[in-house]
Structures are given as structure tokens and as C-alpha cells.
């Protein structure tokens, strides 16, 4: 305290929202291997120490699974949980495990020493590459290394000194010790810290490093915590305990604000809140344009508890149920039919007559809900989604049996959605198994729901270009914009050096969406669009102009999307889409949409 002159900084806005609170400075993490001495073991102790290492891995996995459950319970969404899945996937890397256990048994090194040596070699490799993608992986490795060392029977703990005041914390500080109204400032925000931060206490993040696509940033967005990056940490540390304001929409940060500045931002924050409350109160109204065109707004959900928000915001149904998140804490191979049946039955009953689009397990790759032990160096192009399910037919059969049995308890319609379709043969194989499972259940005396529809996720250019062929095999389609953008532009949105390429406004993405809409219209089959593009009001007019009439979004976005639709006419939306399709660059399309949205607001 004591620095009373108002100071202004401008950083990179990462997660939107305004936060007003007290600076709590998170000490820069010490080297995670500090305190790990080179230690030898006796030959007769090898088995004992390998077991100890495996227990640490097991405990670390349980820690991360518990963290995923906590994220699910607070409604943080799939992005946050997928990042923790990445850490779990790293735990299961057989190359690391074999190297560590080999050094324990052959070099007679303690697990701590062997693990330190192996992970330092990995870190050296990452540091040798001047690439932001590898810097992000390095952050993940360091984060995970600390966790494993802490779980090695507690023999190695963080050497971070315990603080005597609540204006400073470490990444190991227990959540109960966080002060209220904390704005956590740090040199670097690590993913696990962002994931475990309780939103009722931690109101914002400010960091020196990290960008819009860093893992910590994606988690902050998912949790709805404002975050500004690229603000000097040394300045922040001298102000630990002082009042701070951050605007996650503009990147503005104010330290020791005057009474007038606090009043200004408090009013702005309250105004945002009032606006949201107003549009939320109107969420029972239809999503109809000013010239009378009605749009169906559905919900993306991951657990039965999300149904409360589906009803609260008057969603027309569940447009995307991500069934893999029922597997938190277990592998899909061990998720029994009875366990699945009970979980799906509970959700269908809570839906209370609303239609449900049930996506089959979208697992494999970097979604570590499987027993697969091989390392995939390019998981986005690997054995995931329907490829994994057809490769493991018993997993698919078990899930189909469970969902068909549970569907008897629902009043609304059931649609089953196949993830990541690239070829019509995948649809035929899935339909064949669906029919086979239906016959099995009927022969066992079950009375099944009639007319269950089977649909495809359009997430790769191959599926969009072959839409006419795929439509012959299915009853409906859903465009998954997140993956469609990634695969079309060959750009990983979590890779900060190429994230500038990951843009929904790229003309090629718009043309693929247009092609998909035109082909489904010709076949008179339903098509829904989901993903972040559907949830962002900036794109709403464009999507309606292209021909979208069904959107599926996270429940909390329903009021804003409905409100945006009620402010526009379809005639204007079509004109906007025509202009957008005539443009040749991402920047031009984005500017067109920004100008249009600013006028409408």
C-alpha cells in the first residue's frame, strides 16, 4: 500500500468484463525442481520406488479429474475441461513413463531424481524452439511437473515461502486462503491455477505474459473471469494490496483509481449488468426478426445440471449434448451401460419434453477419456470421434444401448449426432449398428422410442464438399464451426503464432457454410449451426443472411442472441451476407460485420 497516485496501463484484452478489487500478487513460480537432490536407491528397492512413482501419477490423475468435475459443476464449459484433459493426456504419455521407470530400475535413481532429469530434457527441447506453441506446452509441462512432485509421497513440496499477508499468494495457496474481491496479478498465469480459482473470490486476472489463445486465457473465458495480459508484472508487485480496476473488453488497467474513476467503472459495470438483466428478462420472447422470420435457438450442454439454464432462458431444446463429459473421472471403455443409462435417463427426464440432440462420444486425440496409450503427435488428425468409435465398436454399441434404453423416459424427440464425419461410409456403419442394437433390445423385451433421427457433424471441409452424398445417408446435419474453421484454415486456435489465421470471417469458411446451407435446403433437411461463431452476436446477422435458421449456443448466450435477432430484419441480413461473400479478405469481412454490429447496437 501507499502508492496513491492513479496509474494507467493498457494491455491485451483476453477475457471480457469489468472487475474492481484488490491486487493479490502471485509470486513467480520457483523452479519446480528446486529441492530435488540427486538421490540413489538400492537395487532391492526398485519395485518399491516404481510403485511410488505410479501412485504419484495416479494421484495426479485423480487431482486433475476432480478439477474437471469442479469446472463442470460451475458450468465452465468444454474449453476449460479440454485443457485439463490435455494435462491428463500428458500424464499417460508412455514415453515419459518408460524413461522415468527405466532410470529408476537401470540407473538406480529415486523417482524424484529420474523424473526431474527426464522432464528437464523435455524442457530443454521446448526451449530450443522459438515458437509460442512450444512455450505453451512448456507451461503445461512445468505445471504438471509440480503436481507430480507434490504427489510423490509429499517428499518434495514447493519451496515457495508462506506469505504472512493476503496481498501475496503462490500457485500452491489453497483456495480457502484467497481474499475476497481479489484481482490476481502474475508474471505468468498457469492453467491449473486459473482452473481452480473460485469466481466468487477471484474477480479478475492480470498477467505480463499470455495471449488470447493461451490455455489460461481459454479457461478464464470459460469461467467468465475478466483477464488482461501484457501488463508489466514488476509494476504490479509494488502495488500488492492496492485497489485495481481492469476492463477485459478494452485492455485498460487502473491502479489506485480515484473516487471518480471508481464511480465511473462501477456505473459502467452496473450498466452492463442492467443491460444483461434486461435482455435476460426478455429471453422468453421468440427470436423473430423485425420482418417476422423466426429462428430456433437451442442449447449446448455437458451435464444434467445445465438443464436449469436451458429452461431459465427458454431454449427451444438441446441442440448439442456433449455426452463425453458424462465420462469425467473414467475412461469410456469402463463407462458401463448401466452407468450411462442412469446418467442419460436423468438428463432426459430433466429435459421435460424438450427435444435432445445427443452427440456420440467425441473422444480420442486430446480428449483423454480413453484407455488409448499411444502418443498422437497430431491428435486433431488422429483416432478421434467417430473414427475411434468405429475402431472400438464395443464402446459405440454400449453407448447406443444405453441411450436407446434411456430415451423411453423422455417426452421430446431424440436425435443422435455423429461427430467428425468425413465420409458417408461412417454414417452407414453407424446406422447399421444403431439398427442392430435396436433389434437386440427389442428381442430382450424393451419397447423403444420410434423415429429416432441420425445426423452428422459437419466439421471438416471434406464433409461440407460432399454434403449432397452425406445427406442421402442421414436425417439432419449440424455445422460445428470451431473444428470447421480449424480444419479449413489449418490453424490451431490454441497455437498463438498462427491463431491470427483462426478467423470465422475468412471467406473460405463463409463459402463452406453457404454451400452446406444450400445443399441441405435443396434436400429439405434440417441444419443447425453451433460453436463459438453461433454464440457471438457479431456474426448473427451474417449467419441469418446466409440461411441459418437454427443456432445452438451455451445457455448463458441465449438472451443476447435472441435480443440481436429481434433488432434486425432478414432483408438487411441477406444484404450483409451478400456483401460479405463478395469480399476477398478476412479483415474486410470482419470490418463489415463490426461496422454493422456497431450501428445495430
Key phrases:
601 residues; eight-stranded parallel beta barrel; alpha/beta; single chain; 17 strands; nine-stranded mixed β-sheet
Distance N terminus to C terminus?
A: 41 Å
Instruction: Please provide the count of β strands.
Output: 17
Q: What's the helix count? A: 23
Spans where pLDDT lies below 50 across 5 or more residues? 155-164
| Rg over C-alpha atoms, rounded to the nearest angstrom | 25 Å
From the spread of the alpha carbons, the general shape counts as: globular
Helix content: 40-55%
Strand content: 5-15%
Q: Biggest β-sheet: count, sense, barrel? A: 9 strands, mixed
Structural class: alpha/beta
* pLDDT averaged residue by residue: 84
Please tell me about this protein's structure.
Strands 1, 2, 3, 4, 5, 6, 7, 8 and 9 form a 9-stranded mixed sheet that branches. Strands 10-11-12-13-14-15-16-17 form an 8-stranded parallel beta barrel, surrounded by 4 helices. β8 and β9 (252-255) form a beta hairpin. The protein is α/β, with parallel strands linked by helices and 601 residues long. Helix content is 47%, strand content 13%. It is globular and about 70 Å long. α2 runs antiparallel to α7 (215-223).
Give a brief description.
The chain has helices at 46-73, 78-91, 94-106, 111-127, 132-150, 191-196, 215-223, 233-237, 259-281, 307-312, 337-351, 386-391, 393-407, 424-443, 461-465, 467-471, 481-489, 507-523, 532-535, 540-546, 558-566, 570-582, 586-600, and strands at residues 7-10, 12-15, 18-26, 168-169, 182-186, 202-207, 227-229, 243-247, 252-255, 296-301, 318-322, 356-359, 414-418, 453-458, 476-480, 527-530, 550-553. It is α/β, with parallel strands linked by helices and 601 residues long. Helix 11 (337-351) links the parallel strand 11 (318-322) and strand 12 (356-359).
